[in-house]
């Protein structure tokens, strides 16, 4: 696929030198093999590996399917994240994943994969929002809506995680516990002119409100908006490692 992406990118760069170019590898991972031998666009600073991670339909219904899905997620992760770690100037975006129903096993696999994405501070997009008579898919249960048009709230709650939309520094760790709804972000602060922005779904995860802890305590000024927390770094804390920890007021698990 690399020659195709190089040719397409060259045509794009003739009229647009700056727009990020996203390219996809073969959707089937290879054991102990990278998706490409090197960055497809060479030294171009605006290139993104757009990768997909899928399991078989109904992956949570029996032990064999569950084990197969866990193995597939591990192989995908090793391949894609190994490539991105080796080539630090290449961005990463999980542009497709999921395509699952709402069984407990499938939701568990979604949570595991989203946790892996957080570990690597990766953006992602679930497949898919609605069916729209899509003939390319393998799973009739993958939509975010039931056939009668109502939302699949269990799946929505799984996908609507607390996460940092913007970080005023270098991210070191981001995690969200889907059971307790506790979120933690740790970063090396480099910016005081713009805030770190954290999204949270208050209705689904924090119906009784939430608490925010900042460490060191005086290193950020907090501003709250609907489903948003902004943390502006104090100028004296530039260069410090700051930890934001957000947790529901209720001690009950969600």
Task: Please tell me about this protein's structure.
The chain is an alpha/beta fold and 254 residues long. The chain folds into two domains: 2-159, TIM Barrel (Alpha-Beta Barrel), CATH 3.20.20.80; 166-248, Sandwich (Immunoglobulin-like), CATH 2.60.40. 26% of the residues lie in helices and 28% in strands. It contains five helices and twelve strands. The strands form three sheets. It has a four-stranded parallel β-sheet. Strands 5-8-11-10 form a four-stranded antiparallel β-sheet, with no helix packed on it. A hairpin with a 6-residue loop joins β6 (169-176) and β7. α2 packs parallel to α3 (104-119). The chain is globular, with a radius of gyration of 20 Å. The mean pLDDT is 91.
Helices and strands, in order, run as HEEHEHEHEEEEHEEEE
Biggest sheet descriptor: 4 strands, parallel
Radius of gyration equals: 20 Å
Beta fraction of the residues?
25-35%
What does the average pLDDT come to?
91
CATH class category name of the largest domain: Alpha Beta
* Structural classification: alpha/beta
Helical residue percent band = 25-40%
CATH topology of the largest domain: TIM Barrel
CATH superfamily of the largest domain: Glycosidases
Strand tally is 12
Assign the CATH architecture of the largest domain.
Answer: Alpha-Beta Barrel
């Amino acid at each position: 696929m690399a020659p195709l992406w190089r040719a397409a990118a060259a045509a794009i760069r003739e009229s647009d030198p700056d727009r990020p170019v996203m390219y996809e590898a073969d959707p089937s991972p290879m054991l102990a093999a990278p998706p490409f031998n090197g960055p497809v666009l060479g030294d171009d600073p605006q290139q993104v590996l757009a990768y997909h991670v899928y399991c078989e339909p109904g992956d949570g219904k029996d032990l064999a399917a569950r084990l197969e899905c866990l193995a597939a997620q591990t192989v995908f992760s090793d391949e894609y994240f190994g490539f991105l770690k080796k080539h630090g100037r290449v961005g990463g975006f999980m542009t497709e994943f999921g395509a699952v129903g709402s069984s407990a096993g499938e939701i568990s696999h979604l949570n595991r994969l989203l946790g892996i994405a957080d570990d690597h501070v990766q953006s992602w997009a679930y497949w898919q929002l609605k069916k729209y008579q899509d003939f390319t898919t393998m799973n009739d249960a993958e939509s975010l809506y039931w056939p009668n048009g109502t939302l699949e709230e269990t799946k929505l709650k799984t996908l609507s995680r607390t996460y940092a939309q913007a970080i005023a520094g270098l991210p070191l760790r981001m995690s969200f516990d889907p059971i307790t709804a506790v979120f933690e972000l740790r970063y090396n602060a480099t910016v005081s002119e713009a805030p770190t922005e954290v999204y949270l779904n208050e209705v689904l995860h924090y119906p009784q409100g939430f608490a925010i802890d900042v460490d060191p305590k005086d290193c950020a000024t907090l501003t709250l908006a609907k489903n948003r927390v902004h943390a502006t770094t104090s100028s004296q804390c530039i260069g410090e490692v700051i930890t934001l920890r957000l947790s529901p007021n209720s001690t009950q698990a969600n």
